[in-house]
Write a structure and sequence with these properties.
9 strands; single chain; elongated; nine-stranded mixed beta sheet; about 200 residues; alpha+beta; about 30% strand
């Protein structure tokens, strides 16, 4: 697993699993996990927009239109990995040293979709770090980032119905194409038999 040490809003270090770090519309987004799985085998995931204005800051994706675009990209990555035609601009998560997570967006995915989301990440060359900056005085503590009153833990989950309907429509189209091809083959066989 790709591990990253981040700094939570209460100034503690948290070891997270990087699910995906990617560029979308000239913005950088990190999706990570704390390995929390619920009783239905859904993984709780966190998404942040990474800003580099005053140090590395991970913030909540508060604009709903932007969040919808990010969710669509997440679905595209999952479906692309499933179909074998992945299209994503992965970024090197190792550049996120000292990332401070101020706030985040929470969502859930099934274990299968989480695995598809993190599969086939671009592998980057080993980075030679310059002289490390002075580390902030923080206390390592294995705690979750604090729940922010502005952050809802009841974030909408991925639209599984839309994914299911898209797959069902695609399957129905393929079945129809197969039937049409079978009919053409039978027509060709009949034409050949009539010639003999």
């Amino acid at each position: 697993m790709d591990k990253l040490l981040v700094i939570s809003a209460n100034n503690t270090q948290v070891d997270v699993d990087v699910i995906r770090y990617f560029n979308l519309n000239n913005n950088k987004y990190l999706v990570y996990s704390l390995n929390e799985v619920d009783e239905q085998n859904y993984v709780k995931l966190y998404a942040v927009k990474v800003n580099e204005n005053e140090g590395l800051i991970g913030s909540n994706i508060v604009d709903e239109n932007e969040w919808n675009i990010v969710k669509e990209k997440i679905k595209e990555i999952i479906m692309g990995n499933k179909a074998g035609n992945l299209n994503v601009e992965d970024l090197d998560y190792r550049m996120l040293t000292n990332l401070r997570i101020n706030d985040y967006r929470v969502f859930k995915l099934s274990l299968e979709f989480t695995e598809l989301l993190k599969a086939n990440k671009k592998v980057f060359d080993q980075v030679v770090n310059p002289i490390p900056e002075e580390q902030p005085n923080i206390t390592p503590e294995p705690v979750l980032p604090p729940e922010n009153p502005t952050t809802s833990t009841n974030e909408p989950e991925m639209d599984y119905q839309a994914l299911y309907l898209a797959e069902k429509t695609n399957n129905e189209r393929l079945i129809k194409e197969i039937e049409e091809l079978k009919n053409k083959i039978n027509s060709i066989k009949d034409a050949i038999n009539n010639l003999i």
